[in-house]
Amino acid sequence: IMPIYKYFGAPAKYHGKPLFHIISNLKDFGRGRIITRAGFKDEKPSFYRILFAQPLMDQKSEEGRAIVEKVRNGVRYSEPVDLSKIASLPDFILVPRKDEDKFCKWNELRDYDPSLDMVVEPKYY
Fold first, then answer.
1. Would you call 61 exposed, middle or buried from its count of C-beta atoms within 10 A (0-12, 13-18, 19+)?
2. pLDDT tens column, 17-28
């Protein structure tokens, strides 16, 4: 007879590891490696490429500064992004080196164009 499992609470929002748990174990703190988020469910490639990482070496090793190149929905953003605000969220996944080209689809990416990609906020909510 199989036991009956009853789940309670809301399902997990994040499905990964904090950013600095991953890159603290990589050579040169993962410079050049590809990180994605479990929450990215886009058909087009969405990922971050690490340019510079500096962990704070705190107790849980979740804090620090990470400067990355951002690609979202196949659009490569021109300015580097600082991920220090979201680095402690357990939602990051390291893409294996052998799968990076297949995952990133470099030939399908296009650069950020303000006329196409600018998000206009509504005047009133």
1. middle
2. 999 999 999 999
